[in-house]
């Protein structure tokens, strides 16, 4: 296809999408109004039917749980793709041993290490809290999982590559990631078997505001927390490995 | 509340422009982190704490870290 035809095809598509966007935007309610028909229904469903005080979690894990299932597998596939791209190539096998040892032994100042280790505990606690209270307060499996994954990387800041490599056995997190993603599907199929609908609620709802409440929403949050934390740990481990170990064959200019 | 939203929208616009103009990926990684922080404040001002938390973790921390590691890796290979 020549450049002119491509531009022509693009112009037709852009005009159509542009027209539709203008029509859609002019039909939107203006910013900051009090009328929210969808929001009112979502809040009603969430609080009265599902005992989930965090309405966002109720939308993500119950009212629109199938969308979230798709997003889970977007993350899962992205991680697999990254692992395939960042696998060790044959030409990178010959490493300079001394370079590698220097990189691995490198660590931060004692004061940096102290702050990192203190923050490691605090951040882990915050991460666990955000995952466990996903159905009650802002946050949930995704946000808490990211916090948990960043927490473990404070070990790298404080103790260098050696510390983090000892502390996180990557194969374990690969398995946990798969279990988290698989668990979401299993719970979804349990809904299909018991009620006929994918991801329909199968667990007891409990009382609004209790730590054990919200039915499927809470368990799905925990599964997503496991998957997201493991996914980020696995991906960052590959990036860190590429940076700290692989390809140090030629001396760097640092 | 509207004043806070207006201020954070302006800050986000400035931070986003700085990321684009920063040029080098390493400088972009750091400015992207600041951009993530301004977006986080904007989402809090718009009463979306769930999105704000995701924004803080992903845009202010994980993505800049990955960009920094990749930029350093590419520099080391050259």
Low-confidence sequence ranges of chain A: 248-254
Total beta-strand segments of chain A: 0
SS-based structural class of chain A?
A: mainly alpha
Q: Give the largest interface.
A: A-B, 26 and 19 residues
**Oligomer description:** heterodimer
The amount of beta strand of chain B, in percent, is under 5%
Helical amount of chain B: over 70%
Descriptive account of the structure:
- The complex is a heterodimer of chains A (254) and B (78).
- With 254 residues, chain A is mostly helical.
- In chain A, 71% of the residues lie in helices and 0% in strands.
- In chain A, helix 3 packs across helix 10.
- By secondary structure, chain B is mainly α.
- Chain B contains three helices and no strands.
- Chain B has helices spanning 2-21, 25-45, 49-77.
- The longest helix of chain B is centred in the C-terminal third of the chain and has 29 residues, at 49-77.
- Chain B is elongated, with a radius of gyration of 14 Å.
How does the SSE layout of this entry go?
The complex is a heterodimer of chains A (254) and B (78).
Chain A: H1 3-26, H2 37-49, H3 55-63, H4 65-85, H5 97-105, H6 110-132, H7 141-152, H8 154-167, H9 170-195, H10 216-244
Chain B: H1 2-21, H2 25-45, H3 49-77
Helix pairs in contact in B: 1-2, 2-3
Which characteristics define this entry?
heterodimer, A: 254 residues, mainly alpha, 10 helices, globular, B: 78 residues, 0% strand
Brief rundown of the structure:
The complex is a heterodimer of chains A (254) and B (78). Chain A has 254 residues and is mainly α.
């Amino acid at each position: 296809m020549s450049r002119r035809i491509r531009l022509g095809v693009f112009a037709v598509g852009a005009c159509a999408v542009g027209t539709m966007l203008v029509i859609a935007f002019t039909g939107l309610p203006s910013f900051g109004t009090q009328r929210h028909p969808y929001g009112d229904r979502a809040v009603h469903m969430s609080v009265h039917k599902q005992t989930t005080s965090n309405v966002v979690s109720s939308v993500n894990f119950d009212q629109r749980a199938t969308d979230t299932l798709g997003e889970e597998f977007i993350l899962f596939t992205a991680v697999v793709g990254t692992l395939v791209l960042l696998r060790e190539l044959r030409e990178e096998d010959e490493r300079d041993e001394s370079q590698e040892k220097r990189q691995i032994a490198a660590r931060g100042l004692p004061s940096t290490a102290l702050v990192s280790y203190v923050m490691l505990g605090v951040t882990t606690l915050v991460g666990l809290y955000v995952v466990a209270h996903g159905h009650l307060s802002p946050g949930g499996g995704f946000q808490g999982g990211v916090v948990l994954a960043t927490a473990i990387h404070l070990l790298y800041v404080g103790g260098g590559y050696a510390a983090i490599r000892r502390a996180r056995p990557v194969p374990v997190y690969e398995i946990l990631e798969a279990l988290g993603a698989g668990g979401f599907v299993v719970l979804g199929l349990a809904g299909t078997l018991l009620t006929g609908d994918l991801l329909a609620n199968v667990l007891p709802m409990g009382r609004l505001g209790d730590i054990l409440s919200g039915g499927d929403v809470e368990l799905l949050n925990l599964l997503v927390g496991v998957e997201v934390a493991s996914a980020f740990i696995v991906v960052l481990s590959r990036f860190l490995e590429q940076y700290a170990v692989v390809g140090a064959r030629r001396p760097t200019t640092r | 509340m509207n004043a806070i939203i207006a201020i954070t929208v302006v800050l986000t616009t400035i931070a986003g422009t700085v990321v684009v103009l920063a040029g080098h990926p390493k400088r972009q990684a750091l400015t992207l982190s600041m951009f993530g922080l301004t977006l986080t404040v904007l989402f809090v001002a718009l009463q979306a704490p769930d999105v704000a938390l995701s924004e803080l973790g992903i845009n202010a921390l994980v993505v800049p870290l990955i960009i920094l590691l990749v930029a350093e890796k590419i520099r080391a290979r050259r």
